[in-house]
Amino acid sequence: MPELPEVETIKRDLEKKIIGTRIINFIDLWPKTLKGIKAPDFKKKVIGQKLVKVTRRAKLIIIKLENNLNLVFHMKMTGHLLIEPDTRKIDSDGNWVRKEGALKDPYNQYIRAVFWLDNNKIIAFSDLRKFGYIKLLTSIQLNLVTSEFGPEPFSVDFKASYLQKKFSKKRIAIKKALLDQKIIAGIGNIYADEILYRAAIHPETQANKISVKEIDKIIILTRKILGDSIEARGTSTSDYRDTDGQQGKYMNKLKVYGKKGSLCDKCQTEIEKIKVGARGTYFCPKCQVKR
DNA sequence: AAGATTGTTGCTTA
DNA sequence: TTAAGCAACAATCT
Predict the structure, then answer these.
(1) Using the CB atom, is residue A172 less than 7 Å from strand C?
(2) Catalytic (active site) residue A279
(3) Structure letter (DSSP) for residue A173
(4) A64 and A20 Cβ atoms separated by less than 8 Å
(5) Catalytic residue flag (residue A2)
(6) Contact predicate A86/A121, CB 8 Å
(7) A57 counts as catalytic
(8) Which residues are registered as beta bridge partners of A82?
(9) pLDDT tens per residue, range A73-118
């Protein structure tokens, strides 16, 4: 799943590869990919525009255009933004195929939208499960969206006094609180489990029962884990790939996520899997004691 | 072959 | 007014 480290990796790659280029064409191969706008209207507003700036907020990628409109991408579970040489074409049946000599790409059949750029490259939005989307928003509309998110984990606003205030009002499981984008932006299922394991907190602990000391731990560990994962270019437990179609390397450093039955690093107890808020949740029953 | 998987939204209920 | 739970979305794998 693309969570903060994966989306941040994509954002940094895009910054290097596409800033200053111009969009010269667009096609949507799965109509629902464009949310809130139809392709003809979208094309009118986007074609000819220079890509001015790339930012990330929570799990959103935002590309600012010269005309002050913003391309907003959400990868959901299986989305990719692939930057490739322009070696693709549409065949007579309307199918999206590789031209001869194109890079090998296992996601060819899942491409939902394509932007052609004026540097002979394309941005291909691939998404196996079709949950991801592209929106075109004014800065005002974008602000309405991003202002709903809680603080970024690396911002100064993400601090103990803030989390104390938020958690004190919540009786939900701490894991659900970490996943709530209105409380903290960018954490998903993988990193929530990793943070709670390293903080030695049972994922079902009520958020309002988390101590001040534990809140300090959560803040430090969140930054440590997300930072390390960004350095490793993210986690590819299943579908995540960067703009070159390459996997991240943080999988090897995971302590609990996806590791049911393997032994805890700290105490050699078997890692267990339970459901918390309808999400698969991995933890060590000895290090993360229920209360 | 049903159930699990995932992030987010929108609805319902308390 | 707020909190919390759940269905829905989509497709694939077990």
Answers:
(1) yes
(2) yes
(3) B
(4) no
(5) yes
(6) yes
(7) no
(8) A124
(9) 999 888 899 998 887 666 666 555 655 444 445 556 788 899 999 9
Output b/e per residue, A267-288; b: 16+ Cβ within 10 A: eeeebbeeebeeeebbbbeebb
Tell me the pTM: 0.93
The residues of A between 238 and 277 with beta carbon within 7 Å of nucleic strand C are 277
Chain-centre distance for alpha carbon A237: 13
Q: What does pLDDT average to over chain A?
A: 89
Catalytic residue among A59, A88, A175, A217: A59
Q: What's the sign of the alpha-carbon dihedral A172, A157, A165, A229? A: positive
Distance CA A239, CA A278 (A): 21
Mark the nucleotides of strand B covered by protein, meaning any atom under 7 Å from a CB: 4-9
Question: For the CA atoms of chain A, what is the radius of gyration?
Answer: 20
Report, as an integer, the average pLDDT of A240-251: 88
Alpha helices in A206-257 (DSSP H): 212-231
What are the two backbone dihedrals, phi and then psi, of residue A168, each rounded to the nearest 5 degrees? -60, -25
Return the closest-CA partner of residue A79 out of A240, A237, A249, A238: A240
Which one has a higher pLDDT value, A251 or A228? Answer: A228
Distance in Å from C5's C1' to A196's CA comes to: 23
